[in-house]
Design goal:
It contains ten helices and nine strands. By secondary structure, the protein is of the alpha/beta class.
Length: 285
């Protein structure tokens, strides 16, 4: 039986000694590893031979890691490459900006090499798992969501409720990934319970991203579902915070928030799936 092809990593780090250390370490872990020291070289390398994962330093000497990520996310061939940013521990704004431009994870310098190895392993596992359901909430995403939205194009009896959670990236930054995942699971459960109580058997729940949930329902159910979900979420947001932080609502830090918007067949007609999805995402803004 032929040996499974090793996952390929591209390390982008302008500290030559650190780049060499990371290369040697991950090769010893049986990864296929390449390294470059410049941002422009990283973009070219990803375009010519797409790696399975990118370990990307933010502070580079030509273009920074944010620009590298932005360029990769803007091209179809490279837009889905998992990116783990390396950043200085003091640069909180850098980490937040990293998530904004599409980072999947970040590791702060100085870092524990074993932690980095585990984050690489987990990121690669996520990309090889089924893309049909969200690994955190279990809700439909990707192709399953697209299939359901295409069905909407063939009928006039539908409404979509978009539920967006604001400032989840900031929450994750302060309280960690486990707490952030708990928020996503709780939101999905509250939507599910509302559908169970007020929706119909053909209602569809899905997820467009970490912060965006959609519910496809009948137009007659939309108002009641919207009211129930909004009241339940707004009444629960504070409970995601530790007890000592629940009174910290006026210190200027971003807090979890919820925004609901809806779209229905009467907002169309929609030329195709892309037009419908674009309209949904515009409602989020």
């Amino acid at each position: 039986m032929p040996k499974e092809k090793p996952a390929s990593l591209l390390i982008v780090e302008d500290d030559v000694d650190l780049a060499e250390m990371l290369t040697a370490y991950f090769r010893a872990q049986e990864y296929d590893v390449a390294a470059v020291n410049w941002g422009e070289d990283a973009v070219q390398a990803c375009t010519s031979k797409r790696p399975d994962l990118l370990i990307l330093d933010i502070r580079l000497q030509d273009i920074d890691g944010f620009e590298v990520a932005r360029r990769l996310r803007s091209h179809q061939r490279t837009q889905d490459i998992p990116i783990i940013f390396l950043t200085e521990v003091r640069d909180r704004k850098d980490r937040m900006h990293g998530f904004e431009v599409g980072a999947d994870d970040y590791v702060t310098k100085p870092f524990d090499i074993h932690e980095l190895r585990l984050r690489v392993r987990n990121a690669l596992r996520r990309t090889t798992q089924s893309t049909l359901t969200n690994p955190v909430t279990g809700l439909a995403e990707g192709a399953l969501v697209d299939e359901r939205l295409r069905e909407c194009l063939d009928t006039n009896e539908w409404a979509i409720l978009l539920v967006s959670i604001g400032h989840l990236a900031e929450f994750r930054e302060e309280y960690g990934f486990v707490a952030s995942d708990d928020v996503q699971r709780a939101v999905s459960l509250m939507i599910h319970n509302a559908v169970r109580d007020l929706g119909g058997s053909s209602d569809f729940m899905g997820q467009l991203g970490m912060t965006d949930f959609i519910l496809v329902t009948a137009p007659g159910s939309l108002a009641a579902l919207t009211e129930r979900i909004q009241s339940r979420l707004e009444g629960s947001l504070d409970y995601f915070y530790p007890l000592e932080d629940r009174e910290r609502s006026h210190d200027g830090r971003p807090r979890l928030s919820v925004r609901l918007a809806n779209i229905s067949a009467s907002d169309g007609p929609f030329e195709d799936l892309d037009a419908l999805k674009e309209q949904i995402l515009q409602k989020r803004a």
